[in-house]
Predict the 3D structure of the following.
Amino acid sequence: MRAFIAIDLPKEIKDYLSLLEAKLKQSGADVKWVAPVNIHLTLKFLGEIDEQKTNKITQILEEISFRTPQYHLKLGDIGAFPNIKSPRIIWIGLAAGDNETKEIATNLEEKIEKIGIPKEDKPFASHITIGRIKSNLNREKLTQALTALTTENDKAIYQFLATKLTLFKSTLTPQGPIYEAVKESSLKTA
């Protein structure tokens, strides 16, 4: 199965990010927007894994979750890779919880590499992807819309408690991916 590990987001966060998408859609840019139900914070993309690796990954998730306390995340600025002037991926960063998220991602990378899944080429950057640019159509208008949204201050009020790590199965369809939780592992409570 094609899989990844992520922190799922509460409905109110997904609703807010859906509103941001709606504002950006007004630019008329050619963007494949992430369906609100699918918005999450990816910790590790695994690619195709078999049942044996799935079982080992489940054990790794349990081990990391058992040692990692629940923590608060707060939405930060909107941004783009490689940058806002030539966006290819549109994302929301974290204003709080970034260090904890990076620590979990680093632990996952190290442990999962030991079972034969290579580490990522680039260092982990905490972000929530909301769209992928498909062409240059209205790119300048999109850049203007992104720049306008970076000056809004209300993102900081959107925060939530990370309570679990989830192993998701990703099924690709012509209508877009379908994500299914395979294993949820609760973070340690105080």
Summary: The two ends are 34 Å apart (CA to CA). The mean pLDDT is 93.
